[in-house]
Design goal:
single chain, about 250 residues, alpha+beta, Alpha-Beta Plaits, about 25% helix, about 15% strand
Length: about 250
């Protein structure tokens, strides 16, 4: 992508969007900052957080990772598939030759080269130094360009007024998986994201979280021993979410 053109577009878009940005959030919605770490404790490029998923161990019909994610972040299921937010969802893979069916979780892939960040006109879509891709709710104007740019359909637009939110959410903004960034940034952490924790508690042990840059981490060890795949590796996005034993 031509970054000069992107920067030029951002300036033009911002000039047009200034007048409407103030109404992008529902009246009365107050959001906390998206950055989990204090300003004097910036995320470090020494880490690259990611998740490894073993498709053979992921239970078909099991949605514990989805329900745990939604409970963790206060994302309700309203029974409206076309508009319900999905930070993580289960997708079915079918081998057309053999008929073998697998079910895997799909979420923001936390790309090293995220297209959602490239197209965002307000810099609301951003990537931390440790590889976590986030949305700054204060800067998001709900244009949804990032949703169109994401090849994984991993971002959702908040259509409904938010209530009892546990983390920054707001009507008229875009959101997606954050790798449970507040667990990563916990002074006593990092702790496993809610999806990984729930999968382990269920006994599937299909998900591993850790530092991809640490050769001694369990996730790095498993990738070295068994390998791993990226969804749409042809795009060269260098995803932080890796899969094993895909059909």
């Amino acid at each position: 992508m031509n970054h000069n053109k992107v920067d030029q577009y951002r300036r033009q878009f911002l000039a047009q969007a200034t007048a409407v940005a103030g109404v992008s959030l529902a009246s009365g919605v107050i959001l906390n900052t998206v950055h989990a770490k204090p300003a004097d404790q910036a995320a470090s490029s020494k880490n690259r957080w990611g998740i490894l998923i073993d498709a053979n161990k992921c239970g078909t019909g099991c949605n514990k990772c989805v329900s745990a994610c939604h409970e963790e972040h206060g994302v309700p299921t309203l029974g409206k598939p076309a508009t319900d937010a999905q930070w993580i969802r289960k997708v079915k893979l079918t081998d057309k030759q053999t008929g073998h069916v697998q079910s895997i979780p799909m979420m923001c892939q936390h790309c090293a080269n995220p297209p959602c960040v490239d197209v965002c006109p307000t810099n609301a879509s951003m990537k931390r130094a440790d590889g976590v891709v986030l949305v700054d709710k204060h800067a998001c104007i709900g244009c949804r360009y990032c949703m169109m740019a994401c090849p994984y359909n991993a971002r959702s637009f908040v259509h409904e007024k938010t209530t009892e939110q546990k983390y920054p959410r707001g009507k008229g903004t875009v959101e997606s998986c954050t790798l449970c960034v507040r667990r990563i940034d916990d002074p006593n952490g990092p702790y496993d994201p809610a999806c990984v924790e729930a999968c382990n508690a269920e006994g599937h042990r299909a998900m591993w979280f850790g530092d991809l840059k640490d050769p001694n981490s369990e996730i790095s060890g498993r990738l070295k021993q068994y390998g791993g795949e990226q969804i749409r590796s042809d795009l060269g996005l260098n995803t932080g979410i890796r899969y094993q034993n895909l059909t």
